[in-house]
């Protein structure tokens, strides 16, 4: 039968009967073997096992979108779990792309998108690729049903636990933990709300939380916690004035003077020289004390021996 039903491409062979492509196989000998297998079972894909023996090799096969795919060849028999993992991995990234199916990167944010019945749906935004892949994997395994998520989910690729929440039909990852015992749900909710608040008021940058900036009261009610942070207070915030502006307004005169002379990579000697008009007893210690206070307020940072303002 030789090349019957085979159509050669640049780097592979299609197995074709009529107008239907049944498989695309890289190696000629494998294509011949799988072609013969299809003929043997009268082109009924459902009759073909997930693992078949070819001379000294075991071939792992799977059917996706009514096409047969060769996932791997092994000299030894694979366990059912190993076969399941290979199939899962292929389904999640059949084209061996950077992020896998349904994940794109927009600036610094990973976005899960899918076309359903001609319409594009967004299922979530993430600052971490592993979070995006974890959510995408569960969606793939559950036919894109966001209601399939539990509050705490196990990630079978990284062997970690993630806390999730559905907000406005999007799946958010609130935290990532090595063991289930580490998870304090109340604390996770408080930290997540604090992240949103810091992003809203310019104290940190989390672009993936953009759509939640105006939902803080609603989320406090949903999670039954108040926004809480070890450094910042978000109570009675003036919506027209950022928390950062309020902090700067409440600095002592000397703290403000120290902050004003710091630009980018400013050395201690440069700071001291600029403040010489304030010279007094224990002048170096006074400057260092105020530098430490400004760092605690997250207004400046120290890199090596120099100081820089933190851009809001």
The N- and C-terminal alpha carbons lie at a distance of: 71 Å
Query: How large a portion of the residues is in β-strands, by DSSP E?
Result: 25-35%
Rg, Cα atoms, Å:
29 Å
Overall pLDDT confidence: 87
Number of strands: 15
Q: Biggest sheet: strands, sense, closure?
A: 3 strands, antiparallel
Helix/strand/pairing category: alpha+beta
Q: What is the share of helical residues? A: 25-40%
Overall geometry: elongated
How do the helices and strands follow one another from N- to C-terminus? EEEHEEEHEEEHEEEHHHHEHHEE
Write the layout of secondary structure elements.
Layout: E1 6-8, E2 13-17, E3 20-25, H1 28-40, E4 51-54, E5 57-64, E6 67-74, H2 80-92, E7 103-106, E8 109-116, E9 119-126, H3 129-141, E10 152-155, E11 160-167, E12 170-177, H4 185-200, H5 216-223, H6 243-249, H7 253-261, E13 266-267, H8 268-274, H9 283-296, E14 300-303, E15 306-309
Helix pairs in contact: 4-5, 7-9
Structure report:
- The protein is α+β, with helices and mostly antiparallel strands.
- It is 32% helix and 27% strand.
- It is built from 9 helices and 15 strands.
- Strand 8 and strand 9 form a beta hairpin.
